[in-house]
Each structure stands twice: as C-alpha cells, then as structure tokens.
Amino acid sequence: IMTRAMEMEGSGGSLTMPPSDDAADLEVSASPASFTCCTSLMHRTAAFLRRECASGPWSLKDEMLSGLAVALAQVPEAIAFSFVAGVDPQIGLQSAFTVGIVTALIGGRPGMISGATAAIAVLLPQLVREHGEGTMFYAIMMYGVFATVFGLLRLGDLVRLLPHPCMIGFVNGLAMLIAIAQVSSFQVPKEDYYAATTMQQLAPEEEENLLLRRHRRRMLLSAANEGGGTSLGAFEVFDTQIRNTQWVSWDVFLWMLAEIVTVMGIMLALPRIAHASSNNRVVYTLLTAIPSSLWGIGIATAFEWLVVRLAAGAETPLVRDVADVKGTFPSIIWISSAYPLPPVREALVNALPTALVATVVGLTESLLTLSLVAEMLQDKGHANMEAIAQGLGNIITGMTGGMGGCAMIGQTVINVKSGGRRRLSGITGALGLLVILLAAHTAINRLPLAALVGVMWMVSFYTFEWRTGSLFINALLPKRVRDWLGSGNRKIRRADAVQVLAVMLVCLFADLAIAIAVGIGLACMSLAWDLRNRIRVVDTFEVDIDADGDDTAPTAADENNNSISGRDGSGDRSRRRKKKCYILTGPLFFASAERFLDFFNPADDPEIVELHMQATEVLDFSGLEALNRLALRYANEGGKELRLKYLSPETRRIAGKAVNLLAHMSSANLTEMTAAVEEERRDVWRLEPPVGMAVARHPHSTAVDVPAAPAGARTLAGGRGHDYCG
Q1: Given a cut of 80, is residue 12 above it in pLDDT?
Q2: Are 340 and 468 in contact (CB under 8 A)?
Q3: What's the pTM value of the predicted model, to 2 decimals?
Q4: Nearest CA to 300 among 439, 433, 458?
Q5: What gap in Å lies between CA 210 and CA 207, rounded to an integer?
C-alpha cells in the first residue's frame, strides 16, 4: 500500500504506471519509489522502537521477555480451547496468532493480550457439530464485522452499564463451562461407531499398532458431533448415549487423573515456591522465567512417556490422537483445500446467531479487560478503538481459518505484571506463538491430553469468584445469625444474589449472551422496583386564595371575627377559596406512575391543587402521562385545576418538548414548559426567584431555590416537623 502511495505521489496522483515493454526501464522507474518506501518504513520502525524504549534499554528487554512468557503460556490454553470448540488444535494456535498480532498493533490499550479464549470457544461446538468448520469461519468474520461497526459507532462505553452481580455470574458461568467441557476428554467413541466409520476410513497400509493406538480418540469429536442438542445444556457432555461415546477404562482414567493432579499441583505450588525463594536470584529466575503451566505440562509429559508408557506399559490419549498439528502458516480459506466451505448465503444464515452471541461475549470480555488494565496502570484506554481492533482481528482470523478470540484477562495480567506496558510485548507474544506453531508442532502432538485438562481446570479455578458462596449465605441468613457467625456487615441484597444465580444458570443451560441479557433485565427490574417505592408525599397543607387565585394573608382581626381579608382588605370567610399543596419527593417514571396516582383523591381536594416538585424528577413519558391523567381526573371533578410548581430544569425540558401531548394541563403550566424549551435553545438556564421574593431552601433539594411560604400557610398533617417547603 505504501509503495503504491509513493508511486501515486510521484506520478502526480495517477495510480497507473506508464506502459513499457522494457523490464530495465520499469526497474529504473520504480527504484526511486521503492527506495523512498523503504526509507519511510525504516524511519517508522525507528520511531516505533524509540517509543517502545522510552523508559530506557531495559524497558525493551522487559517488553520482549514478557511477550515470550505470554507466548509460552498461550500454547496450552489455545490447544485446550480448540478441544472445547471441537476443532483441530492448529486452528486455535492460528487464531491466537492472528487475533493477537492485529490487536497488539492497533488495539486501544498497549500491553493487552488477545487470542483464542474460552468465552468464544464455548459458543462454537454446536455450530461446528451441525454445520461444520466452514460455517464457523463465516461466523467469526461476521463477529468481526459487528465488533468493528460497534467501535465505529462509538458504543464502547456501553460495557459500563453492566451491573456487578451480572459480571460475577458471567465469570462464574464461564468458569463452570470450561471445567465441564473437559469431561469429554474421559470419553471415547463406542466400538460399534468405529466399526461403521473409522475402520472403513483407515487406509489398508496403516500399521496395526497405529490403529489400536488412535482408534479410541481419532473420531471422538465426530462421534460427539453426531448427538443432537438437548435441554441439558452444558451437562449434555455427561450423557454418553446422546454423544455416542463411552467412558475410558478405569486404568486409563487413573493414569489421566494422576497427570491432571500433577499439573494442577505444580501450577498451585510453583508460584508460592518462587515467592518463598525470592532471595535466591538463580532459583527465582529459573522458576519465573517459564510459566507454571508449561512446567506442569513438561513434567506431565515426562511422566506419560517414562512412567505410564515405558514402565507401566499403558497409555493415555495424546494430542495427536484427536488431531495432528501441522506446522503451516495461516492461509486464506477460499484458496485453501484444507477446509470444505458451504454456500455463502447458507453459511451466513446459519452463522448469524452464533456471530451475534460472540459479539456480545467477546466485546464484553475485551472491554472489561481494558478497564482492568486501565485501573492497574492508572491510564485510561480507548474502548472504541479496542472494539475496532478486535473486529478487524476476527475478520482476518475467519478469513485465514481461525476460531476467533478476544482479549484474555489472565494473559493480560501476566503481561502487565511481567513489565509489558507497550505494544512490543503483544507483538512479541504473537510472533513467538507463530514460531512455536511452525517449529514445535511435532512436540505439541506428543503432549498428553490430561495435562491440558489440568491446565483448563486451573483456568476455571482462577476464573471463578470463590467469594460467591459467602455472598449467597450472608444474603439468605437473618442478621442475628450473621452477627453470630461474625459476618454481619457482609450482606448484599437478596435481589443481587438472585441476579448472580440466574446468570450462572443461564450460562450453563443456554449461552453467555442470553445470560448477560437476563442479568441486565433482572438488574433493571430490581432498580425500577426500588425506585418505585421512593416516590411519596412528604407533606400537604392548605392556603387561602382570593378571587384571582392568589394567596391571601390572614390578620388577627380576621381570625377573631372568623373572617379573612384579601390583600386589599376585603373578603368574607363564606366566600373564601382554598388551595391544597402537595410536597412530593422521588422519581416519577413508568414503575412509580400508578403509585403516584394513588396519592390523590380529587373528590376531596379543593378546586385548586398544586404539586410542589422541586424534589421530584419526571424521567420518561410514563411520568408525563401520569401528570396528564391526574389533571384529567381533577378536571372531571367540577373543573378543578392542577398546577405544577418548582419543576426541575430536566423535568421542564422533558415536559416542554412534549407539551402538545399534555392536553389536560393548565395553560400556565404549558406556558412555563414551553418557555423552558426556548431557554434551552438559547443555552440560558437561570433559576433566580423574582426580585423581592424571599427564598427558602427545601430540605430534599440542594440545587433549586423555591419561594418562601406565603403568610398564613398552615400544615394539615399535624406538622410532622414540616412547614411550607420544609
């Protein structure tokens, strides 16, 4: 692209080269542009390295070593995620490289690591089972397109709307999905299934020992794919009848369990041993230079080949018994014969649901990782740019035959804590993963499958929020029991506990995107119910008014003579009119509208009623309609008038824009609302009382000044400590 741009610049804007039959002439004419392009690339590379080395030469070393550590740690996870998705391990490794390199170059947060993740892997088995890997590639490309559009529309801040209980349920459900998916590693296809499939597909010249070794595992994914979906959700893996599988023998199970325990024990103990030996620099460097997961896999592999196979004469499944990893560079799926592709229209229709779910889940995990790193480094990232980078990375991944991915929380934390702060760490990690794929594929094929199961169970262990159990217990127990147990001040609302549990269950029996939607829905319902109970009438009082509807002030003589005078000194108690005022507080919206209407009895109120709303906000159209309905009720009771007083600026703005929909409001209120809209258009917002009017501050509002009570105002609720406006 840069070469063509240089050619266009040199030719005055034309993209076409002058025709020539002489190769030498073409070479000479192109050489200045090529030289300029190379020089520009060298300058850009030098500028990039200067930025990466801004903290000194040791920063460059830390970035590269951190990236290599991340690359080594991604290998077992990418392979294990491939098994979760039901595809070859090579697809997972290629996905980790393509997604990682793109997001490292243009992502919204330097230092973040992206690759093949469990959040995307758990969405793919059903799609692969029903429609094949070709449809999965189209689903990943559609996921990339949706994520790119999401970023271009600047919707990255939507992730901040996710409630914390929803996120706890999400990560717990994801951890449980990862752990349950590993159960398939203890299953083999039924012998009769192989008699009809595998045995006929094997070439006659294959060795007998190869057949005996591989026939237990080679078609496991295909056998499992024969089963249809059920209502069991993630627990379908335990039903061998549906999956056409059977459990491994007891001796194989025990050997696999020993390798799993070895890996998990090493991953648990090694960091603690390294921390305890921090004073010994040689031991500490040796233990921390290589990730604990690789230490565990290496020891488990040695145990498999030296103890299980050589000494005991047994064997457990290897990676090659499921799918061989070939050291090939990612290629475009349309020009490669490795993957059969369905018709485009059919593939897009079948892939759309999975693509939508992957977009929600992938962007959620990516943007949460972005927020986590921003909090760790006290440096805000760019959510929209990260969404665009994730989208472009997944588009390229789908085009090159990958299973997609997103940001990796665990690997990102490892990178940041290892000193990775710049883009060079992510680039080094992606390139290191590619080198491992091309050069170490033979060693990967000989890894025991049980070692990868141990790694994935440790990923589940670290992902799960273990404090969830105590939160549930404290939410259910009464205060006296909590105080007796010493956890009296660790209680969350029962509604929040229900949200966590609901999201976890939906993750297990449906999918992650539906779980997030359910969590948000429950949170909204809980919030609406709580806010519904907050609207109330603080106090009511009545005042006398004259014939013009203005407030009157009684005198001592009037009180003694049982009469009341107006402002002009005239008046008679028999002709006195009254006005009733309601002081309201709380939000008025769809959930509180009916409760708001129940506060009023138009038949018993006087002919003029005022609502003092300085502590009340009208939030939506339901609130406006409630006011309109209340005005209609008063109008139907002999033409009584409802007035709104001391509206907040936001309420006046909302009501002013819908003034033509409020047919039953008084003309004075409509004029005030319309004036509010005009003030907003002129960007003039001043809430100053009229000149000469005293000002009293309402206790429920700290922002709006309201007129002081007129003389003669009396409370009707026995005082309750409230006079006019508090």
Answers
A1: no
A2: no
A3: 0.71
A4: 458
A5: 5
